[in-house]
Amino acid sequence: MKDELVHHTRLSPNCNARQLPVTMAVLHYTEMQPVETALDRLCDPEAQVSAHYLISEEGEVTLLVPEDKRAWHAGASYWRGIKDVNSASIGIELDHPGHRLGYRPFADAQIDALIPLLHRIVKQYNIPRANVVAHSDVAPARKTDPGELFPWERLAQLGLAIETPKPSLTDVFDNDGAVYLALERYGYDITDGPRAVEAFQRRWCPRTIDGVINAEIRAILFQLLLDRDRGAAR
Questions:
Q1: Is position 67 annotated as part of the catalytic site?
Q2: Which end of the chain is more exposed for a tag (fewer CB within 10 A), N or C?
Q3: What pTM value is reported for the model?
């Protein structure tokens, strides 16, 4: 099935041996245009960056690094106790101008190509929905991709990501410190607290990205933790 989902192969030298089993999928945008520029960089030995797949805006999937290899896509990153995210993840780059070159909604053809690829990956490696994450989730102090316009709810409707919960309680945290600890408990690196909050906003409440803790953040975060502890948010 994998070969049917891949249109091109252009192997990058930028990879090495995994040290951990695959338990995550990390989604990125390239923030480079045209797509050939991104492909060249991801295959440039001097750049020392790569990903397993790149999906063009037209929906063409290019294999860059075999899945049994450790691609260099996440950089310094952390998620739920994992510090070597590259070893534990499949990295998928989406051809997109990003925030720097003119942020815009993701092309339908691109998401249409992502969905079956991600579905196969999630099923093959038994990846929990909560471990299908944004680059900004695993590196909040450095990254903003794929950003607030990425269609997470479409993935969630197909069982490929956690849907945004409908909170049953509000204002359950006494202070901002408790919220930061809850963010850490959910999986985030909170070394830079406001940037961790921004990453959370991009994923769960994207109408406002300002790094300021508010009632919506507190309610959604508490419900995410509650659902996880109940076993309802794998």
A1: no
A2: N
A3: 0.95
